[in-house]
């Protein structure tokens, strides 16, 4: 297993011996900076495991009382450029969503760091793009192995950083991150080209695909390592070098991933990770003339800004944006399967997944029965500490986001809607140390009009609306009435009906009688304001390469 002795450094309230190891929960260790003033200059420790172990035994006696007394420790992250960790001139605060306290310092990078990353990526590109698909595949498989070996450490970091339950991080986020590398390690070996003959002209035509060069990757805060690797893996598999910007709200697992790259055989400069905010580092990356392709997952307003900045350079864009996803439940649906799946689709990861359901249309004949059972099932979802194995939901990402989500519930109430459970109805019980955290109960709203902002706008939190419908034609029209078109679910025992409705829904992904079952070979992406382009095996390969037609006269 990969030890966190190689991971972020701590700023402590007291000075410690150089390289001191600190024991935290679950057997994880963090290396301390020499002093508070020294943190910007700390690099990867060269201590042997044996030396570290001896120092640990000595230092724990002095540090454990400090930790027990509630002394604050701050993780200090660094950019990863050209195979090296580099400090930044300024840092921004990152909060633990479960406590509302600052626990991490993230580089506040800008143009200077992007220029350095572009230079490193440019220098690494010729050698990396010249490697065979088989060689690149081996590197990706080694990365997958290392992520799998580090599952517990990465899961704990992801849970603390994002607020999601540790159970979800262990079972979804980190396994999927490893799978992303392994999947594209395999798919890169199976792409084909086209070839045609023109015998009467003695000509042969064939196509080849070549990497685009430097790929700019911007990933969101809701599934940090999961979606970062979903972009990195196909980009480097195709022979590109990359500059990635994770969300400044959830940067820790991206930083931890950097520690695995050398061991996996990733050459310096192939993967560069620059931390910071969108207006500073994101815009510098998107507008850089030597970065011809941008893959972005996030909000529509940010996508609009990316489009504006990239237009002068005619960049290739992949924009995976939000959704206002409907679930359509017909009267012949199997409610024993439908209700738990729809609760999960509404509130998984605190509702902070672009594919989550936020509009539930139920055929009128079963509306009352569904609503009663759905609210009962929702109330069984426990909100608690992310580390609690019995918790179904953890904390939302930030105080600002929590207030935004709550504001939608307040607007719905002001418009005359009924709040059946959750926010403002049920009591949330939390330990004292977590009462400043960003927790919210799963909330069900009914008696809400289609024109309401709760039915039109993406909330991206644990809030869903349940409304009745009468006919198939009516519900399709209502489901398609929003500007988004990412995902939808249809529930019915009538297979012909599910096929018919699925074809008429304006959504890039439609699940029938299930939710979030994914086949990575198939396209992923949305219609309308939910984005541009598709991701997946062939689609990602096509996006991160340029096609060229070659004609040979013989």
TrEMBL record:
The active site is at residue 320. PROSITE patterns: ALDEHYDE_DEHYDR_CYS, ALDEHYDE_DEHYDR_GLU. InterPro entries: Ald_DH/histidinol_DH, Ald_DH_C, Ald_DH_CS_CYS, Ald_DH_CS_GLU, Ald_DH_N, Aldehyde_DH_dom. One of its GO terms (cellular component) is cytoplasm. Its EC number is 1.2.1.32. One of its GO terms (biological process) is retinoic acid metabolic process. It holds the Pfam family Aldedh. One of its GO terms (molecular function) is retinal dehydrogenase (NAD+) activity. Pathway: Amino-acid degradation; L-kynurenine degradation. It is found in: Cytoplasm. It catalyses: 2-aminomuconate 6-semialdehyde + NAD(+) + H2O = (2Z,4E)-2-aminomuconate + NADH + 2 H(+). Transmembrane segments: none annotated. Belongs to the aldehyde dehydrogenase family. This is 2-aminomuconic semialdehyde dehydrogenase. The lineage of its organism: Eukaryota, Metazoa, Chordata, Craniata, Vertebrata. The gene is Aldh8a1.
């Amino acid at each position: 297993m990969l030890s966190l002795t190689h991971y972020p450094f701590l700023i402590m309230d007291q000075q410690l011996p150089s390289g001191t190891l600190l024991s935290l929960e679950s057997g994880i260790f963090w290396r301390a900076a020499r002093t508070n003033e020294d943190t910007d200059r700390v690099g990867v420790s060269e201590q042997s495991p044996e030396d570290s172990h001896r120092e640990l035994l000595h230092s724990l006696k002095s540090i454990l009382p400090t930790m027990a007394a509630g002394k604050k420790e701050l993780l200090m992250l660094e950019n990863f450029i050209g195979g090296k960790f580099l400090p930044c001139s300024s840092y921004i605060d990152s909060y633990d969503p479960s406590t509302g306290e600052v626990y991490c310092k993230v580089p506040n990078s800008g143009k200077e760091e992007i220029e350095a990353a572009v230079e490193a990526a440019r220098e690494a590109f010729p050698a990396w793009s010249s490697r065979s698909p088989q060689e690149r595949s081996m590197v990706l498989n080694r990365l997958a192995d290392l992520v799998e070996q580090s599952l517990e450490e990465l899961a704990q970091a992801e849970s603390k950083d994002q607020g999601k339950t540790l159970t979800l991080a262990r079972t979804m986020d980190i396994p999927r991150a490893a799978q992303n590398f392994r999947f594209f390690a395999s798919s890169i070996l199976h792409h084909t080209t086209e070839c045609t003959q023109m015998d009467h002209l003695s000509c042969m035509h064939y196509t080849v695909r070549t990497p685009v060069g430097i790929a700019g990757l911007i990933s969101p805060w809701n599934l940090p390592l999961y979606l970062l690797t979903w972009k990195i893996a196909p980009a480097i598999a195709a022979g590109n070098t990359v500059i990635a910007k994770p969300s400044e709200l959830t940067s820790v697992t991206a930083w931890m991933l950097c520690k695995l790259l050398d061991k996996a055989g990733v050459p310096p400069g192939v993967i560069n990770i620059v931390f910071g905010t969108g207006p500073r580092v994101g815009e510098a990356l998107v507008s850089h003339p030597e970065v011809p392709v941008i893959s972005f997952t996030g909000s529509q307003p940010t996508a609009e800004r990316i489009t504006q900045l990239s237009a002068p350079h005619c960049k290739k864009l992949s924009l995976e944006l939000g959704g206002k996803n409907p679930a359509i439940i017909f009267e012949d649906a199997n409610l024993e399967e439908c209700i738990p799946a729809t609760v999960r689709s509404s509130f998984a990861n605190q509702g902070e997944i672009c594919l989550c359901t936020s509009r539930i249309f139920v055929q009128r004949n079963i509306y009352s029965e569904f609503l009663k059972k759905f609210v009962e099932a929702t109330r069984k979802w426990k909100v608690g500490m992310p580390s609690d194995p019995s918790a179904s939901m953890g904390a939302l990402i930030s105080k600002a986001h929590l207030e935004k989500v709550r504001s939608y519930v307040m607007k719905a109430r002001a418009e005359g809607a009924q709040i059946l459970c959750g926010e403002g109805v049920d009591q949330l019980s939390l330990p004292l140390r977590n009462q400043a955290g960003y927790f919210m109960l799963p909330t069900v709203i009914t008696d809400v009009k289609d024109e309401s902002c709760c039915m039109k706008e993406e909330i991206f939190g644990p809030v869903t609306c349940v409304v009745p419908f009468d006919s198939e034609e009516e519900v399709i029209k209502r489901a398609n009435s929003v500007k988004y078109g990412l995902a939808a679910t249809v529930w019915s025992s009538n297979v012909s009906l599910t096929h018919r409705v699925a074809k008429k829904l304006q959504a890039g992904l439609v699940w029938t009688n299930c939710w979030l079952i994914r086949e990575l070979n198939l396209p992923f992406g949305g219609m309308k304001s939910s984005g541009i382009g598709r991701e997946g095996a062939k689609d990602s390969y096509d996006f991160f390469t340029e096609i060229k037609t070659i004609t040979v006269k013989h």
